[in-house]
Amino acid sequence: MSALLDRLAGEQHLPADDFSDIRRRAQAALMQHGFPDLKTEDWKYTPLKLIEKREFSTDETTAAALPELPFQAQVLHFANGRLDLDTCDLPAGVRLEPIGRESLERAEYGDRAGAFAWLNLARFEQGLRLVFESDQEHPLVLALTTSENFAADVHPRLEVEVAEGVSATLVDLQHNAGAGLVNRVVDIDLARGARLNHVIRRGGGDCAWIERAVVNVHDDADYRVHVLDCGGRLTRQDLRVHLLAEGASGEIDGIGLVDTRQHIDYHTAIEHTVGHTKSRESFRLLGDGSGVGVFNGRIHIHKGADDSHSDLNTANLLLSENARINTKPELEIYAEEVTASHGATIGQLDDDAMFYLRSRGIPADEAGALLKYGFAAAPLEGTEPVEVKEWLQAELKQALV
Question: Where are the domains of the chain?
Answer without folding.
Answer: 2-351
